[in-house]
Design brief:
Strand content of chain B: 15-25%
CATH topology of chain A: Rieske Iron-sulfur Protein
Number of strands of chain B: 39
Helix content of chain B: 25-40%
Radius of gyration of chain A: 13 Å
Distance between the termini of chain A: 19 Å
Number of domains of chain A: 1
Shape of chain A: globular
CATH architecture of chain A: 3-layer Sandwich
Shape of chain B: elongated
Largest sheet of chain A: 3 strands, antiparallel
CATH superfamily of the largest domain in chain B: FAD/NAD(P)-binding domain
CATH class of the largest domain in chain B: Alpha Beta
Structural class of chain A: mainly beta
Number of helices of chain A: 1
CATH class of chain A: Mainly Beta
Strand order of the largest sheet of chain A: 1-9-8
Order of helices and strands of chain A: EEEEEEEEEH
Largest sheet of chain B: 5 strands, parallel
Strand order of the largest sheet of chain B: 5-2-1-9-21
Number of domains of chain B: 6
CATH topology of the largest domain in chain B: FAD/NAD(P)-binding domain
Number of helices of chain B: 29
CATH architecture of the largest domain in chain B: 3-Layer(bba) Sandwich
Oligomer: heterodimer
Chain lengths: ~110, ~850
C-alpha cells in the first residue's frame, strides 16, 4: 500500500530562498520552493504568463518572480500578483521529520 | 549629528559686531526648537535682510523635529532624518547659533541677555521660544538614577542605552507621549508597563470606546497597561528598582519614564518681570508685556489658552513674523485637531467630543477591522469627532467642523466618510481631496494647509521633493505623502515630475543613498543592509536583492560572499534562459578570434547535445541554443577541455570586445586593434558591473568594429588611440562621447580600467553607461578619469584589485561539482511503476 504522499528528499536539499524541481514521466515538472522563514510550497513549474520555469525565479517573502518576465506569483496560491492575472496550479506539500512530501494525486495527476 | 557652535569668548563685550551687517537691528531668539526656528524661517521668508539673528539653544545640536523623537526611539528614523534646519541653513541665512549654552537671564532695562556660560548679547528685539518642560510628579524617588522624562534627544539616548541593557520599564503617563515612549521601548525589547492615573488612556483626545480599543491593541502587543494607577513612590537604592502604587502594588523597573504632561517653560520670563499666567502672556501679535519682547510656541498663553500641539504654533509664527515686518495680521485662537499614530495605530480627534446638552452622536463600529468612528453633531453641525483605526476622513470632518457647515443633507452618509457622503457612493480619493477647502490641513507635522501646498505647486514645485523643500508638506513623517501626491496630480495633471526614485517598494531610499550607506556604515551583507536601512519587507524583492548583491560585491571585493539566491537566473546558471526554459551557451572568444580546435569543440557540442541552433552573435561570438540545465555542466566541460571559458553573455559584466583586423591585415589599419582587443578582454573579463558592458576596438576611423556605439570603444588613429564612452546600440541608439585621446596601448587600458571602475562605483544597478553619462554629465567623467591623474590611478588600482577575485571561470567551477544541485532535479517519478506497485 502506497501512502498519499511522495517523499522527494530532505528539506536541506532545497536552498533557502530557492527552489528545486521534481519531474514526472509524461507529466508536468513541479517546482518546490523553500522561503526565508523555512516554509515549503510547491507549484507546477510553469508561469501562467508564458510558461517560464518558476523554479528559476528569485524567491522573496512568499512569492517568486518568474525569470522570463518578472511576473510575481504567490507561492501559497499560485496566483499572479498585482496587475497580472493568471494562476499556476498548486501542489499540497508538507515537511515531516525533515523530509519533504508532495501530495501524490496532485503530483501525478497530469501524467495519469 | 550632534552639533556645537559656541565659539566666541564668553567674556567678550556685549554686542561685539560679529555678523556681516552689524548695523541691522539684532533679533535674539531664546530657544532653538521648532517654534523659535519656525518663527525665524517665517521672518526670513518675508524679509531676509531686516534683522541680524542670533539663536540660543539649550541643546548642543541643530533644530530638529521634536514630534519625531518617537520614531527615533522606535528605530524607524535616525537623528539625521529628523533634523529640520541643518548647519547649512544657519550659515546660509547668516544666523549665529549658540547651541548648548542656554540663556540664563534677561536684563530688559539694558536689553541684554546673558547665557549660562556668561556670554552677553544685546538685543533690539527678543523672542522667547523656550517651549515647555516635562512635569515631574513630586513623589519620593523621582531623582533616582534611571528616572527620566521624554522631551529631547538626550532622553532618547538614555532610553536607547537602557533598552540595550534590557529588563523592565515603567512609563508613568498614558497620554500620547507616554504611549509613544512605551511603544518604542517595547519594540526595543523591554518589558513595558504603562501607568495612567485616569480611567482611560489619552482622555483628552479619546472617548472611552476608542481608548478601550487602543488599550486592547497595546496589550495584544505585549505591554501591560494599568489605568487608575496612582504612583506613590519610586523605589531604589541610588538607582531605580521598582514603582509602588498607592494601592500597594509594586512593579519592578530598571527604567522609569515620566510622561505625565508638560508645563510652559516660563521661569526666565517670570524672572525678567514679564507678565506670566499659565504661560507667558502675549497679545494677538505675540508681543509680551514688554513691546520689545515677543514670545511664541508652547511657552505662551494667548487669550487664556496654552497649547501643547504643533498646529497652533505655526499660526503663531505666521502672526509673529507678520508683526516683525510691520504687516500685522494677528493670531486667532486655534481650533485643534489631533491626528496621530500611537504605537503604529491611527487615532484622530477634534473639537468637543464630550457630548452633552443638544449633542447627537453618529457612531460606526467595525470590530473585525478594529475601526471606531464617532462624529458629534450639534444643530446639524459637526462639533467633534473621534476616529480610531481608520483616520482617512479626519481632515474632512475637521474641515466641515471649522467651517461650521450644515451637514443635514449628507447626514445619513456622513459617518461613511467623504467619498460616500459627497460622491454618491463612489470612492474616489482624488475627488475627496479636490473637495477639501483651501484651509484644510494637509500636513499636521508642519502645519501646511491645502491652499499653501497648491500655491507652492503653482510657484513651480512640480515634484514631491520640490513640495517638501518648498513648503515642508510631507517632509517630516510622510503620512500625508499620498495627499500631497494627489494635490500634485490635481494641480498639474501629467506635468508632475517624479522625484529621485526609491530602489523599489521595499525601501524609501534611492540607489545612491543605499550605496553611500553601505560604504559609510560598513555594511557587509544583504540582511544587514535590510535591517539597518529598515526594509519594509522581510527579504526584499527581485528588484532590490540583485542590486544589493552587486553593491556589496563592488564595495567589498574579495570579502563579500556572493548570494546566489539574489542573482537573476542567468547569472546563477551562467547561461541565458530562453523562452522555452532551455539555455544558450556562449564561450568566450578573445577579441573575436578563434581557432580550429575551438570551432571543432563547439561543433562537437552542438551535435552531442543536439542543439537545435548555433548562431553568430553581434559581438562576434558563437551562441549554442537549446541546452537543458541538466546538460550545462557537461557542455561546459567539453568547452573547457578545448581551452574555452565562460563568455559571460548572460551577465551584468563585460560581454565582448569586438575588433576589426587592424594593422596586421587591413590596408587601412593604423594600429593592432585585434591585439589591443584581446588584451582588454583578458584584463576585463569576469568583472561584475551595474549592467552589461560592451567594448570594441577599431583599427582606423572607418570604425568597422562599431566602437562608437559601445560602452567603451577605442578608435585607433595614426597618432594613437581615441577613447570613446557611453555608446549604445539598443532601443535608444546613442553614439559615444569622446573621452580623450592617448598615445599608447598601456594608457588606453589604464584609462579604460579607471572608467570601468568609476562606472562600477557610481552607476545605479541596471543603468547602462549611456544613461549614466547623460545623468551625471560627460564633464564629470572627464574630471575623474582624464583631468585627475591621481584619481585615475586610484580608480584603476581599485579595479585591478577587484579583478584578482573575479577571474575564476564559473564554468570550470561548476564542472568540478560546485552548485551541482542547481543543475539536477530533486526527484523523478514514474507514475506507471507506482501504479504497478499498487
Amino acid at each position: 500500500m502506497i501512502g498519499d504522499w511522495l517523499d522527494i528528499g530532505w528539506l536541506d536539499q532545497i536552498p533557502v530562498r530557492g527552489s528545486r524541481t521534481v519531474t514526472v514521466s509524461g507529466g508536468e515538472q513541479v517546482a518546490v520552493f523553500r522561503t526565508a522563514d523555512n516554509r515549503v510550497f510547491a507549484l507546477a513549474n510553469r508561469c501562467p504568463h508564458k510558461g517560464g520555469p518558476l523554479s528559476q525565479g528569485i524567491v522573496h517573502g512568499h512569492s517568486v518572480a518568474c525569470p522570463l518576465h518578472n511576473w510575481r506569483i504567490a507561492l501559497a496560491t499560485g496566483e499572479a500578483q498585482g496587475e497580472d492575472k493568471g494562476c499556476a496550479p498548486t501542489i499540497p506539500v508538507k515537511v515531516d521529520a525533515g523530509r519533504v512530501l508532495l501530495c501524490r494525486t496532485s503530483t501525478l495527476k497530469a501524467a495519469a | 549629528m550632534d552639533f556645537l557652535v559656541s565659539t566666541s569668548d564668553p567674556d567678550s563685550t556685549p554686542d561685539a559686531p560679529s555678523g556681516p551687517e552689524p548695523d541691522l537691528p539684532h533679533l535674539v531668539v531664546i530657544g532653538n526648537g521648532m517654534a523659535g526656528c519656525r518663527a525665524v524661517e517665517e521672518l526670513i521668508a518675508r524679509d531676509a535682510g531686516r534683522y541680524r539673528v542670533t539663536i540660543f539653544g539649550a541643546e548642543p545640536r541643530v533644530n530638529y523635529n521634536r514630534i519625531m523623537l518617537s520614531p527615533v526611539l522606535a528605530g524607524e528614523k535616525t537623528f539625521d532624518d529628523i533634523v529640520i534646519n541643518d548647519a547649512a541653513w544657519y550659515a546660509d541665512n547668516g544666523i549665529e547659533l549658540v547651541a548648548g549654552d542656554p540663556v540664563a537671564a534677561i536684563d530688559r532695562a539694558a536689553k541684554i541677555v546673558t547665557s549660562r556660560s556668561g556670554r552677553s548679547v544685546r538685543y533690539d528685539k527678543l523672542l522667547i521660544a523656550t517651549g515647555s518642560d516635562p512635569f515631574i510628579i513630586p513623589v519620593p524617588g523621582k531623582d533616582l538614577s534611571g528616572v527620566i522624562s521624554f522631551r529631547d534627544m538626550d532622553d532618547v539616548d538614555h532610553m536607547l542605552a537602557a533598552a540595550d541593557r534590557g529588563g523592565s520599564a515603567v512609563v508613568i503617563g498614558g497620554g500620547l507621549l507616554g504611549l509613544e515612549a512605551a511603544h518604542g521601548l517595547s519594540l526595543r525589547g523591554m518589558k513595558v508597563t504603562v501607568l495612567h492615573l485616569m480611567p482611560i488612556l489619552m482622555e483628552r483626545q479619546l472617548d472611552e470606546a476608542a481608548a478601550w480599543l487602543l488599550k486592547s491593541a497595546l496589550e495584544a502587543r505585549g505591554q501591560t497597561v494599568l489605568t487608575g494607577a496612582d504612583t506613590a513612590e519610586i523605589l531604589g537604592d541610588g538607582k531605580v528598582e521598582a514603582v509602588r502604587l498607592k494601592d500597594g502594588r509594586e512593579i519592578p523597573a530598571d527604567l522609569v519614564v515620566m510622561a505625565v504632561g508638560i508645563r510652559p517653560s516660563v521661569a526666565l520670563a517670570r524672572d525678567a518681570g514679564l507678565a506670566v499666567g499659565r504661560g507667558i502672556q502675549v497679545d494677538d501679535h505675540m508681543v509680551t508685556s514688554d513691546p520689545d519682547v515677543l514670545a511664541v510656541g508652547e511657552c505662551v498663553e494667548h487669550d487664556g489658552q496654552v497649547y501643547g500641539l504643533v498646529a497652533p504654533l505655526w499660526d503663531m509664527c505666521r502672526a509673529l513674523a507678520d508683526g516683525l515686518v510691520e504687516r500685522p495680521s494677528g493670531y486667532r485662537a486655534s481650533v485643534t485637531s489631533t491626528k496621530l499614530k500611537v504605537a503604529g495605530l491611527d487615532v484622530f480627534s477634534a473639537g468637543d467630543f464630550a457630548g452633552g446638552e443638544g449633542c447627537e452622536d453618529i457612531v460606526l463600529r467595525d470590530a473585525s477591522r478594529g475601526v471606531y468612528k464617532r462624529v458629534v453633531l450639534k444643530e446639524d453641525r459637526i462639533v467633534g469627532a473621534v476616529l480610531y483605526g481608520d483616520t482617512a476622513d479626519g481632515s474632512w470632518y475637521f474641515d466641515l467642523m471649522r467651517r461650521g457647515e450644515d451637514i443635514s443633507a449628507t447626514r445619513d452618509l456622513l459617518i461613511f466618510g467623504q467619498a460616500f457622503a459627497s460622491g454618491g457612493g463612489q470612492a474616489d480619493p482624488k475627488a475627496a481631496v479636490a473637495a477639501l477647502s483651501d484651509g484644510a490641513e494637509i500636513c499636521g507635522c508642519n502645519g501646511v494647509s491645502k491652499g499653501q501646498v497648491v500655491s507652492c505647486i503653482a510657484k513651480g514645485a512640480h515634484s514631491l521633493d520640490a513640495v517638501r523643500s518648498g513648503c515642508k508638506a510631507s517632509a517630516s513623517c510622510g503620512s500625508c505623502t499620498r495627499l500631497v501626491e494627489t494635490l500634485l496630480a490635481l494641480t498639474l495633471g501629467d506635468e508632475v515630475e517624479a522625484g529621485p526614485k526609491t530602489m523599489c517598494n521595499c525601501t524609501s531610499f534611492g540607489h545612491d543613498d543605499v550605496r553611500r550607506e553601505i560604504v559609510a556604515q560598513g555594511m557587509r551583507s544583504i540582511p544587514e543592509v535590510m535591517h539597518r536601512l529598515h526594509w519594509s519587507t522581510p527579504d526584499g524583492c527581485s528588484s532590490c536583492r540583485p542590486a544589493l548583491n552587486y553593491y556589496l560585491l563592488c564595495a567589498w571585493p574579495g570579502e563579500y560572499q556572493d548570494d546566489q539566491q539574489s542573482r537573476f537566473v542567468n547569472e546563477r546558471l551562467h547561461a541565458n534562459i530562453q523562452k522555452d526554459g532551455t539555455y544558450s551557451v556562449v564561450p568566450r572568444m578573445w577579441g573575436g578570434i578563434t581557432t580550429p580546435r575551438e570551432l571543432r569543440a563547439i561543433a562537437d557540442v552542438v551535435e552531442k547535445y543536439d542543439a537545435p541552433m548555433v548562431k553568430v552573435t553581434g559581438g562576434q561570438r558563437l551562441d549554442i541554443f537549446g541546452i537543458r540545465k541538466e546538460d550545462l555542466p557537461a557542455v561546459w566541460a567539453d568547452l573547457n577541455a578545448a581551452g574555452m571559458v565562460s563568455g559571460h553573455a548572460y551577465g551584468k559584466a563585460l560581454r565582448t570586445v569586438k575588433t576589426c583586423v587592424g594593422s596586421e591585415w587591413c590596408r587601412f589599419g593604423t594600429q593592432d586593434s585585434t591585439g589591443l582587443g584581446v588584451k582588454l578582454e583578458r584584463g576585463f573579463w569576469g568583472s561584475w558591473m551595474p549592467h552589461k558592458f560592451k567594448m570594441a576596438v577599431s583599427g582606423c576611423p572607418r570604425n568597422c568594429a562599431e566602437a562608437t556605439i559601445k560602452d567603451f570603444g577605442v578608435v585607433c588613429v595614426d597618432s594613437g588611440y581615441e577613447l570613446h564612452v557611453g555608446g549604445n546600440g539598443g532601443i535608444h541608439v546613442r553614439a559615444t562621447d569622446l573621452l580623450t585621446k592617448v598615445a599608447s596601448e598601456e594608457e588606453a587600458i589604464h584609462f579604460g580600467a579607471a572608467f570601468v571602475q568609476l562606472y562600477r562605483e557610481e552607476a545605479r544597478y541596471l543603468e547602462r553607461t549611456a544613461p549614466w553619462i547623460e545623468r551625471v554629465g560627460l564633464q564629470h567623467i572627464k574630471d575623474r578619469v582624464v583631468e585627475d591623474a591621481a584619481g585615475r590611478d586610484a580608480l584603476a588600482a581599485r579595479f585591478w584589485y577587484s579583478q584578482q577575485f573575479s577571474q575564476d571561470d564559473p564554468w570550470a567551477e561548476r564542472v568540478s561539482g560546485a552548485a551541482r544541485e542547481q543543475h539536477a532535479h530533486m526527484a523523478h517519478f514514474q507514475p506507471l511503476a507506482l501504479e504497478v506497485a499498487q
